[in-house]
Design a protein that fits this description.
By secondary structure, the chain is low in regular secondary structure. The chain contains no helices and 5 strands.
């Protein structure tokens, strides 16, 4: 007979009920030891032939209760091990089963959440000694399909995603794409798309609105790998330098430019209907703040025009 009240004996194979929790505690024997390395072990017999899947342990909680709460003094609070080697063989898996299509609104559930309060602690850590430590895969629709998302939500100096390479051939963050964009940074006017810092003491906070900031003290800020050399040497020949007349175009250039800013824009040259839109390059030689203290810009002069036929 199954248990119905606290104090009744538990019957295997039946649903047992009680009005209080049940605790199994490991006590030391006369020698101060314990007979096994576990308090409770649940095992599914390997000779089952008519069931494809039998859970070793199933726990169901209600409201804000936790399905599984595990605590350890050292090593691991929860340790999951899977003997399979396929892509669907997982040691620890977390799922959130909210269904956005059920008419209940879009959920913000989390499959696995790791939380620490240590300065150098790690919320979620993935390790692999030969392959991938952490892999994020999304099967969502366009616009919401994110495999791995990092969010620096609190404070002015948080880091959403940190990648580090310690070896000479290592890569901190690697992005690949067969068709689409490997890396895309989207910023607001007050943000910066990317900062590439090779300085000794680190760059100061960059001015906002830049798509990219590059800094180096020992070499050029940007290195462009040359194409294969030309098949024949170019001839040295003088040519007249052409400079665009910028009178009346002051409003087209940022007054708050900073020394070192490189700006590319286009300008209409000629008279309709034969006017052309050509690209021009400008360098900020002196930084400014606003119209009362404007930045100074200079056009980067280029060589003569020729048409590519490659």
């Amino acid at each position: 007979m199954a248990a119905n009240n606290t104090g009744d004996d538990i019957t295997i194979g039946q649903t047992n009920a009680g009005q209080d929790g049940t605790e199994l505690r490991a006590d030391a024997n006369d020698e101060g030891g314990f007979g096994n390395d576990f308090v409770l072990q649940l095992r599914v017999s390997p000779i089952l032939t008519h069931r494809n899947a039998v859970d070793g342990l199933r726990s169901i909680a209600v409201k804000q209760g936790r399905g599984v709460f595990a605590q350890a003094e050292e090593i691991a609070g929860v340790f999951g091990s899977c003997l399979g080697s396929g892509s669907d063989d997982i040691g620890v898996r977390g799922e959130n089963e909210w269904d956005d299509s059920a008419g209940k609104g879009n959920g913000q559930g989390v499959g696995v959440l790791g939380t620490v309060t240590l300065r150098d602690g790690v919320g979620v850590r993935g390790e692999n000694f030969t392959g991938t430590g952490v892999k994020g895969v999304s099967h969502g629709v366009a616009g919401s399909a994110i495999g791995v998302e990092g969010l620096a939500n609190d404070g002015n100096f948080g880091t959403g995603v940190h990648g580090q390479a310690n070896g000479a051939g290592g890569v901190g963050v690697k992005a690949e794409s067969d068709v689409g964009t490997a890396i895309k940074a989207i910023i607001s006017p007050g943000g910066v798309g990317g900062v590439f810092d090779a300085t000794k003491n680190g760059l100061p906070l960059p001015p906002p609105g830049r798509a990219g900031v590059f800094g180096s003290e020992s070499a050029a800020q940007v290195y462009l790998v040359p194409h294969p050399p030309l098949k024949q040497p170019a001839l040295n020949k003088t040519f007249p330098v052409q400079v665009l007349i910028t009178k009346g175009l002051e409003a087209e250039f940022p007054a708050n430019g900073q020394a070192g800013d490189l700006l590319c824009t286009t300008v209409q040259v000629g008279k309709p209907p034969r006017d052309d839109e050509i690209g021009t390059l400008w360098f900020c030689e002196k930084g400014g703040t606003d119209k009362t203290n404007p930045a100074h810009w200079r056009q980067v002069l280029l060589g003569p025009v020729f048409s590519g036929q490659g």
